[in-house]
């Protein structure tokens, strides 16, 4: 069986994604066992940061699941998984403060976050329609459908790329605030970096997969045009 070089790259990227997810889970489990010197829970750390940033109206809520933490920009709520919400560990504080970082971005109208919010409705439609258009265009040899599918898929890829600076910036804010507020000591920064860097790697891998897939579809489209 012959594999196109692009298929091999996509396969490698998928491998990177799986490895990144393993790193997230592994690092969280490891640093979940290490209590933070401040003794704060994830909820307490998040609430303190929000209040000190003037975000008194942004609640912090527990949600079921593991690593289900997120900031909801529509309802303006920081939602923390129960291990993070109630946990006193380096991992709990790292994740909680990262999500607060997104709330701070929202307040400051961080440009990349604003852009991501604005294109999200289009991305939701594009992500749903693009696969069907691409499959139909490739199977039927219809360059018009393939081209339109690529255009919509490009929007979804752009969303993933825009997400990268948003996530990295939230982590940078979290690290600075955790140190500045005394939530962690300098020697605990290593654990914070391990947890947050592993999480960031998952977004990098996802963006890489999407970019490679887009390039593959563009190459297929170019081949269709040559055949026509």
Structure description:
- This protein is mainly alpha-helical and 228 residues long.
- The chain has one domain.
- The protein is built from 7 helices and 3 strands.
- The chain has helices at 5-32, 42-52, 82-86, 90-108, 111-140, 143-180, 189-227; strands at residues 60-63, 70-72, 77-81.
- The chain has a 3-stranded mixed beta sheet.
- A hairpin with a 4-residue loop joins strand 2 (70-72) and strand 3.
- Helix 1 (5-32) runs antiparallel to helix 7 (189-227), helix 4 (90-108) packs across helix 6 and helix 5 (111-140) packs antiparallel against helix 6.
- The two termini are 27 Å apart.
- Keywords: Membrane, Transmembrane, Transmembrane helix.
- InterPro entries: Zn_peptidase_2.
- This is Peptidase.
- The chain crosses the membrane at residues 6-24, 122-142, 148-168, 195-222.
- It holds the Pfam family Zn_peptidase_2.
List the helices and strands and how they pair.
Blueprint: H1 5-32, H2 42-52, E1 60-63, E2 70-72, E3 77-81, H3 82-86, H4 90-108, H5 111-140, H6 143-180, H7 189-227
Parallel strand pairs: 1-3
Antiparallel strand pairs: 2-3
Transmembrane segments: 6-24, 122-142, 148-168, 195-222
Keywords: Membrane, Transmembrane, Transmembrane helix
Pfam family, one: Zn_peptidase_2
């Amino acid at each position: 069986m012959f594999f196109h070089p692009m298929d091999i790259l996509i396969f490698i990227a998928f491998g990177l994604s799986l490895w990144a997810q393993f790193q997230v889970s592994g690092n969280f489990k490891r640093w979940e066992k290490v209590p933070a010197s401040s003794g704060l829970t994830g909820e307490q750390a998040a609430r303190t940061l929000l209040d000190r940033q003037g975000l008194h109206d942004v609640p912090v809520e527990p949600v079921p699941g593991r690593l289900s933490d997120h900031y909801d920009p529509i309802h303006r709520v920081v939602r923390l998984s129960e291990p993070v919400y109630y946990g006193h560990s380096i991992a709990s504080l790292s994740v909680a403060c990262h999500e607060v970082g997104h709330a701070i971005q929202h307040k400051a109208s961080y440009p990349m976050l604003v852009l991501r919010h604005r294109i999200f409705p289009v991305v939701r439609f594009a992500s749903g329609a693009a696969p069907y258009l691409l499959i139909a265009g490739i199977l039927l040899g219809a360059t018009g459908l393939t081209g339109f599918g690529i255009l919509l898929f490009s929007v979804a890829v752009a969303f993933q790329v825009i997400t990268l600076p948003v996530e990295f910036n939230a982590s940078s804010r979290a690290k600075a605030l955790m140190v500045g507020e005394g939530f962690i000591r300098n020697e605990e920064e290593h654990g914070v970096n391990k947890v947050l860097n592993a999480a960031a790697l998952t977004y990098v891998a996802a963006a890489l997969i999407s970019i490679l897939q887009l390039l593959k579809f563009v190459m297929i489209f170019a081949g269709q045009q040559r055949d026509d």
